[in-house]
Amino acid sequence: MIEKICSIRKVDLTSIDIEALAEFYCVPNNRNTVILVFRQNNLHTVLSISDYWKICESALYQGIDIAIQLKYFLTFENNYCEYDRDEAIRVFHKCSIATHLIKSLDISLGVAEFYIQDDTLETNEIINDIFHELIKSRVNAFRIKIPKLMELAKARAFLKMGGRSATELMFQKEHFSIYWNFVSSGDLAVPDGIDKISNINPKDIKVFPSLINKTLGKGKRAIFLVGPCTVEGINPPGERLGDQILNALEEFGLSDAYNIIFIPVSLEASWHSENKRQILSRDIKKNDIVLFLQDSPETYDLDITPYFDAYNGRMRLYTNIPMHTTVEGNRVIAKEIVKNIITPENKKAYGRYDDTITFNGIPQFSQQTIDEINKYADFVKDYRKIPQNSIVGSIVMNCNPFTLGHRYLIEQAARQVDFLYIFVVEEDKSLVPFYDRFLMVYEETKDLGNVIVVPSGKYIISNNTFAGYFRKDIDLHSPAPKEDIIIFGRYISKRLHITKRFAGTEPDDTITKNYNELMRSELPKYGVEFVEIERKRKSDEDAPISATEVRALLKNSRWEEVSALISKDVLHYLKDNRDMLLEREETLKNLYKKNKFDIEEKFINRISSYKKIVIYSVGKDAVKIINRLPEDIRKNLVFSDRNETFFNGNDIVPPEALLSKYKDYMIVVASAAHGAEIYEEFQKMGIDMSRCIFNGIRF
Prior knowledge:
Low-confidence stretches: 1-6, 78-119, 157-208, 466-480
Number of domains: 4
Number of strands: 27
Helix content: 25-40%
Oligomer: single chain
Strand content: 15-25%
Number of helices: 25
Distance between the termini: 33 Å
């Protein structure tokens, strides 16, 4: 989203009043002004509100006067080559004002036209689209306006925090230190003994779990809180907006009626749009309420501005901006939400509609994810060329191990189609390793000419799409299992022309039974018929043949009973590998019991063994890695990122510098989520991968 700057002001560097300029952006009406700084009629540099905040942060951090820092910025930073127009434009695009784009520049005439690109505008546009989509489905959706600082009559931003500003602390994600907990509580006094962040013992830093998709309360009806910082919360548990809404509900006698679900929406451009649209992955019922908290809504149902202005208490309502609320600010917002929106809506709600779904959630996927899914489907296509107009079916099987029951199901399905794909679950979290399971299925079905055995990849019953399958827990109303089925229906089945999906009946296992029910309801939406086949029994009166039973018998070497359930070849495999399988089972059980800290410590120790280090891809993972590094390593770090220009009080070098100035530095790729993309980018750039350490840990 691009919005034209409405005001431009020109000043001359030789006669500029630095003190006056330092106060210029303190006036709210001046904050949408870009200042063009000239020297001898040539454009020298540019100053905007975003630069001003960075200058303030840097000055506070270093403990120097803002005017001095501003003079340094104007003189030495961000300046242009004054006589080379092309060089001036190149430097402009490399400068620290990453949010500004130049439309035209004529240095000789001293004329420039500027536009501002604001991630918050893009995010608000996405939220507006979501709001209208939900309203069309008659969802009880409401927009709540959180004021901007300049809109408040009594702006009281708490910027100075013992040598660092609140915003810088937030960028570094160190909020939950003793100091930050104190500040976010809203008290105006300065705590004794903590005048700098360095005075805090790292052991006292408290990190609280993410609120993404977390639920508070036990009521049947849901209140979805959707929005950026006010929703995500910079406060400890008990002081967040959701906690204060629960308290207000109790005051109004509604605490047993509602639960609260957090759907944080980052304003950062690095968050893909599907992350900002996660509310659309949720089933929303007739009596549920969706609350969008924004600072720039098109229209709004509740404006918090007058309530902040009318506040006469001694506590602060926010830190640096109103979106960053303290516990007291959360109390004010919560009270007005419950009084003006939730209470009236509750009076209109009828209990018989509590379970009536008005909006069916659909998982949101990035284009990268879609491309990966399609690439996998094309890989499967290459196993065998299937003639057009063939009837194609599929079965997804774990086969842990392969039994006569699996063989029977495959035979029955293969008779109903021209070709049958068997997707063997590739996630290696079962007793029998994936490679062995895959070979079992292949060998045991190779006499069936129309059967194609393929690995399931990471988008069919995997830890990515359906972790509950391996933990043996499932909630039919959560996005996870539905996401797995929708990926199959919307993308994989279309690419492979699959029109039937088969599964065996399940009388006992709740996980499989519930998953079958979900497939029965969801797959037909994508033109895929779900076919359930009665499972094979040992005799008419016996229970169905089960891989679970085989595994239980294996432990006690009850081979005669096992032989009635599996083929001779599978029996030989189990006998030959019994000890290995039992040892593997124990390993799998203990896998999640390992001390995660030890794993992280090995990673940190490896990084710390190098003296010259570039941290690439700045963000949450980078902050957590940096905080674990020794002080002598931290102070010499270099930061690089393609999309950012400022981090942790430091300038960011472009990726190209890794091949020149920093060619002998070790590169630590901090982002766990985007490691594969960065790996591909580095390969294209020609960076030696032996220089790189990729973060495979989600700290």
